[in-house]
């Protein structure tokens, strides 16, 4: 059997990754569409900010609930069939959302999108684990995130233009058809593992509860969870829903300027992803320092934005920096997946990635709902109300930052102790035999 670290980044491996990344591109576009279309949805379906928050929170809650099943499916069923099922669910949900004229079918459509979206990233990363050497884990996770950021770019100004032109139904129905074609492509072209690598046997997998317990017990998995929470939760809250209303209703931006700021957020993700992946692949210490630095910048910038004096408009330069660094921080959040996979065996890779992915989405759901409750009610929310409503997002990221500092130190101590033991064993093995 060919070991993962003996694999080479062959053209076919890159082809498989490219297909998988294109699926993630589509999933992120569908996931983030309400970031631009949210206020239009309120007008079309006649509901308020609190219901809008419930839309996105429900989608993310289903995404979160599906993480562990999706990770286990990646390990036990394989990415090919699982990816096809996820894309089919997204295509169906988007078509329902495209033709919805009332809240219940629209909610059903977004729920299906959340169900399918939950499956995609974990299975794409499972493909990289099967087709590439483990030393490329951070880079491939970051590159996958960059492709997802490009999908989000499509969901900013281009989506705004499509909604202004062809309109709601035509735009979302077309995206549904494209996603259905991608589901067929997954079945036709994706292969779960390279030629010559046998499929895992059923008895190779530990019981589900034991697999999850063992994965969580490893410090790298817990570190990945908290790093993902720290860096992805702000990105989810800002880009998926509240960024545009914050700018339009709180900062008096027009629709197209707000979409441009979301574009900056996605661009920050795309630009930072490869660089952060390359740095993080240099070793444990580089991973830790990279993630902590990004987390500190994100928390500091949002503290400055939300703490700006009441009654004064937040300077545009500060907003640009905040949105750009939020995107760049999310690229660092993709590196968190490599933390989880690093300390887990290949047959538990999907489960470990699923646990890590729960971090950002669990915090994102909480922050989304709290913001919706604080912004709900009569009248257009003011800048001050938005600052209060978004404060839990920054607080959760700050709490996770403290936890990441603790786990970084713990993992570096463990690595140093392991290196000392390995050096001692090497010295003992090379010591000359005593004279007779």
Automatic annotation (TrEMBL):
<dbReference type="InterPro" id="IPR051337">
    <property type="entry name" value="OPA_Antiporter"/>
</dbReference>
<dbReference type="InterPro" id="IPR020846">
    <property type="entry name" value="MFS_dom"/>
</dbReference>
<feature type="transmembrane region" description="Helical">
    <location>
        <begin position="139"/>
        <end position="161"/>
    </location>
</feature>
<feature type="transmembrane region" description="Helical">
    <location>
        <begin position="386"/>
        <end position="405"/>
    </location>
</feature>
<feature type="transmembrane region" description="Helical">
    <location>
        <begin position="167"/>
        <end position="190"/>
    </location>
</feature>
<keyword id="KW-1133">Transmembrane helix</keyword>
<feature type="transmembrane region" description="Helical">
    <location>
        <begin position="291"/>
        <end position="311"/>
    </location>
</feature>
<dbReference type="InterPro" id="IPR036259">
    <property type="entry name" value="MFS_trans_sf"/>
</dbReference>
<keyword id="KW-0812">Transmembrane</keyword>
<dbReference type="InterPro" id="IPR011701">
    <property type="entry name" value="MFS"/>
</dbReference>
<keyword id="KW-0472">Membrane</keyword>
<feature type="transmembrane region" description="Helical">
    <location>
        <begin position="51"/>
        <end position="70"/>
    </location>
</feature>
<feature type="transmembrane region" description="Helical">
    <location>
        <begin position="260"/>
        <end position="279"/>
    </location>
</feature>
<feature type="domain" description="Major facilitator superfamily (MFS) profile">
    <location>
        <begin position="16"/>
        <end position="412"/>
    </location>
</feature>
<protein>
    <submittedName>
        <fullName>MFS transporter</fullName>
    </submittedName>
</protein>
<feature type="transmembrane region" description="Helical">
    <location>
        <begin position="12"/>
        <end position="31"/>
    </location>
</feature>
<feature type="transmembrane region" description="Helical">
    <location>
        <begin position="317"/>
        <end position="339"/>
    </location>
</feature>
<feature type="transmembrane region" description="Helical">
    <location>
        <begin position="225"/>
        <end position="248"/>
    </location>
</feature>
<feature type="transmembrane region" description="Helical">
    <location>
        <begin position="107"/>
        <end position="127"/>
    </location>
</feature>
<feature type="transmembrane region" description="Helical">
    <location>
        <begin position="351"/>
        <end position="374"/>
    </location>
</feature>
<dbReference type="Pfam" id="PF07690">
    <property type="entry name" value="MFS_1"/>
</dbReference>
<feature type="transmembrane region" description="Helical">
    <location>
        <begin position="82"/>
        <end position="101"/>
    </location>
</feature>
């Amino acid at each position: 059997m060919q070991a993962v670290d003996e694999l080479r980044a062959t053209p076919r491996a890159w082809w498989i990754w490219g297909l998988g990344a294109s699926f993630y591109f589509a999933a992120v576009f569908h996931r983030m569409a309400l970031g631009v279309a949210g206020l239009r949805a309120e007008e079309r379906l006649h509901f308020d900010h609190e219901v809008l928050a419930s839309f996105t929170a429900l989608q993310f809650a289903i995404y979160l609930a599906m993480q562990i099943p999706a990770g286990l499916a990646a390990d036990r069923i394989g990415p090919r069939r699982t990816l096809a099922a996820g894309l089919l669910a997204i295509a169906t949900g988007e078509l329902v959302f495209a033709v919805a004229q009332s809240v219940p079918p629209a909610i059903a459509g977004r729920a299906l999108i959340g169900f399918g979206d939950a499956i995609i990233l974990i299975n794409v990363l499972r493909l990289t684990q099967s087709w590439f050497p483990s030393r490329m884990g951070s880079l491939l996770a970051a590159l996958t995130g960059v492709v997802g950021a490009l999908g989000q770019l499509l969901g900013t100004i281009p989506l705004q233009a499509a909604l202004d032109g062809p309109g709601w139904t035509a735009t979302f129905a077309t995206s549904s058809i494209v996603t259905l074609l991608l589901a067929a492509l997954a079945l036709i072209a994706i292969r779960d593992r390279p030629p010559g690598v046998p499929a895992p046997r059923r008895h190779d997998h530990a019981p589900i509860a034991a697999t999850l317990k063992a994965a969580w017990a490893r410090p790298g998995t817990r570190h990945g969870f908290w790093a993902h929470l720290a860096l992805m939760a702000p990105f989810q809250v800002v880009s998926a829903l509240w960024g545009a209303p914050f700018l339009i209703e709180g900062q008096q931006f027009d629709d197209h300027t707000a979409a441009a700021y979301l574009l900056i957020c996605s661009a920050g993700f795309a630009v930072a992803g490869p660089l952060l992946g390359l740095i993080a692949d240099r070793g444990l210490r580089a991973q830790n320092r990279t993630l902590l630095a990004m987390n500190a910048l994100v928390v500091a910038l949002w503290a400055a934005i939300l703490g700006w004096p009441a009654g004064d408009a937040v300077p545009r330069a500060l907003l640009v920096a905040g949105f750009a660094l939020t995107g760049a921080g999310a690229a660092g959040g993709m590196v968190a997946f490599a933390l989880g996979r690093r300390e887990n065996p290949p047959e538990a890779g999907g489960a470990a990635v699923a646990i890590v992915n729960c971090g950002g989405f669990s915090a994102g759901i909480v922050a989304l709902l709290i913001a919706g409750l604080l912004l709900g009610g009569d009248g257009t929310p003011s800048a001050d109300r938005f600052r209060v409503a978004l404060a839990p997002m920054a607080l959760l990221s700050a709490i996770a930052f403290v936890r990441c500092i603790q786990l970084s130190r713990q993992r570096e101590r463990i690595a140093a102790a392991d290196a000392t033991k390995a050096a001692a064993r090497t010295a003992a093995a090379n010591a000359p035999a005593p004279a007779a």
